[in-house]
């Protein structure tokens, strides 16, 4: 048991207590951040004359050798250390002796762990942003190819009006774009450096916190040392943003599962992204989409968990906060995996265009347009609604579509109908006429696609 605080104790820690308290099994994940933070701290201490240049160099070299040895597997991070901070410091002292004992001057593990977690989270946010951008690029590619691919749009999972595949994918583009913006926002708000806050009350050394912050790429130091060591708001914000990403992925998964069903057959999930059944030879299951939908609960769990952990903690640092790590790591890993897999599944998925068009034709998705036709010929909308209702009833009875009715049949229900009704209610017309910005008409869609392209160029 290697720990940093034996001095005032007269007894060994009970083994169970030690294990319960230790965090090395999971905080070893940020050994690099711990070393990076320590290097910046030491550079600052030397600049302020608190360490000599020689001590600084010894420590920097020692830290770098630890980093390299961990990376190439020569040095293993074992559970004999309480946490990653103890591991780095103990190994440094082993390697360089007395100078190593000065590393922790003007620092506490409280500001150290606050820094490590921020450094780790910051780089993960960047990685997550990259994965969201990959998803956006894939969606945009599908949109560009499908501004004229007609499919039914649904409300209440009932066929409603014709839209295009580009339009449907465009809805997801909006969602993931907001996710991207949220991540960017969180990064901006969290990018202040807690190091130099000490245990809670700053230190008596003449630290240059602005310099440390600058070395580590922060916008500046945090402004209250108590808040610095006990702030986990940025993790709550991140868990919330990740929950929203998962909610979007889960809705998308649900649609893919429905679209891939034998009844819909709108899409074919590629074999490489499907799985079979151990008993039913005909099965090709959408397991990836189902797993993404399922893992959503786990990320929501992380959000609820950290909110609950933080709610009763008095200022400043309390050990409860060690509980932030496992769940945040798990949520980040989960979301990264889901984003990458979903994008891959989307990129290899085939859209069954004929089937989508067919489905559109046989669901009265052009009924609103038939009513609009009557309105354009002077019939008040409420009356038009009633007339088209009768047409639909007639068609249901005959098992035909509105397009299959003869003009005589139309005229029997309303004399206002003329030959041009067929053009007015063709699926193409229904879509093409909807060109207000945000609507599925190809003209409107192309304008939106140009805006999306400009957004992605900035990413
Ligand atoms: N393992 C701790 C954590 O994750 C590090 C900080 C410990 N500080 C302390 N005073 N015990 O929060």
UniProtKB/TrEMBL annotation:
Gene3D superfamilies: Fumarase/aspartase (C-terminal domain) (1.10.40.30), Fumarase/aspartase (Central domain) (1.20.200.10), Fumarase/aspartase (N-terminal domain) (1.10.275.10)
CDD domains associated with the record: Argininosuccinate_lyase
Top-tier EC class: lyase
Every Fumarate lyase N-terminal domain range: 7-301
Main location as per UniProt: cytoplasm
Catalytically driven reaction(s): 2-(N(omega)-L-arginino)succinate = fumarate + L-arginine
UniProt KW Amino-acid biosynthesis keyword: yes
GO biological process: L-arginine biosynthetic process via ornithine
Similarity field: Belongs to the lyase 1 family. Argininosuccinate lyase subfamily.
NCBIfam families in the record: argH
Protein name per the record: Argininosuccinate lyase
Source organism of the structure: Coprococcus comes
Lineage start: Bacteria, Bacillati, Bacillota, Clostridia, Lachnospirales
Gene: argH
């Amino acid at each position: 048991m290697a720990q940093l605080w034996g001095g005032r104790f007269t007894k060994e820690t009970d083994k169970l207590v030690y294990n319960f308290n230790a965090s090395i099994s999971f905080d070893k994940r940020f050994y690099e951040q711990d070393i990076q933070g320590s290097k910046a701290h030491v550079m600052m201490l030397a600049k302020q004359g608190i360490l000599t240049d020689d001590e600084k160099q010894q420590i920097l070299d020692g830290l770098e050798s630890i980093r390299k040895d961990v990376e190439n597997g020569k040095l293993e991070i074992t559970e004999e250390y309480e946490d990653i901070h103890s591991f780095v410091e103990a190994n440094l002292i082993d390697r360089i002796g007395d100078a190593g004992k000065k590393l922790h001057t003007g620092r506490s593990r409280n500001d150290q762990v606050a820094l490590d977690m921020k450094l780790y989270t910051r780089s993960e946010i960047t990685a997550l942003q990259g994965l969201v951008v990959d998803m956006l690029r894939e969606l945009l590619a599908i949109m560009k190819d499908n501004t004229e691919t007609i499919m039914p749009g649904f409300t209440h999972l009932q066929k409603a009006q014709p839209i295009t595949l580009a339009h449907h994918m465009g809805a997801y583009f909006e969602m993931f774009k907001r996710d991207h913006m949220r991540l960017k926002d969180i990064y901006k708000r969290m990018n202040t450096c807690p190091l130099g806050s000490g245990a809670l009350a700053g230190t008596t050394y003449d630290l240059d916190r602005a310099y440390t912050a600058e070395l580590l790429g922060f916008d500046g130091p945090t402004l209250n040392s108590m808040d610095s060591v006990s702030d986990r708001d940025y993790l709550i914000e991140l868990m919330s943003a990740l929950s929203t990403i998962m909610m979007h992925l889960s809705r998308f998964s649900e649609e893919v599962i429905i679209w891939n069903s034998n009844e819909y057959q709108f899409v074919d999930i590629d074999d490489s992204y499907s799985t079979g059944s151990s008993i039913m030879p005909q099965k090709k299951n959408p397991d990836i989409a189902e797993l993404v939908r399922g893992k959503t609960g786990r990320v929501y769990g992380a959000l609820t968990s950290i909110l609950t952990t933080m709610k009763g903690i008095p200022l400043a640092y309390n050990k409860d906060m060690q509980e932030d790590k496992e769940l945040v790591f798990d949520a980040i890993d989960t979301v990264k995996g889901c984003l990458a897999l979903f994008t891959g599944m989307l990129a290899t998925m085939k859209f069954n265009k004929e089937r989508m068009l067919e489905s559109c034709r046989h669901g009265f998705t052009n009924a609103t347009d038939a009513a609009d036709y009557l309105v354009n010929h002077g019939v008040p909308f409420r009356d038009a609604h009633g007339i088209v209702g009768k047409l639909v009833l007639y068609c249901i009875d005959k098992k035909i579509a509105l397009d299959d009715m003869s003009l005589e049949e139309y005229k029997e229900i309303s004399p206002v109908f003329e030959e041009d009704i067929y053009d007015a209610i063709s699926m193409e017309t229904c879509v093409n006429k909807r060109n207000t910005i945000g609507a599925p008409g190809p003209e409107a869609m192309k304008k939106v696609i140009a805006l999306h392209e400009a957004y992605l160029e900035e990413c």
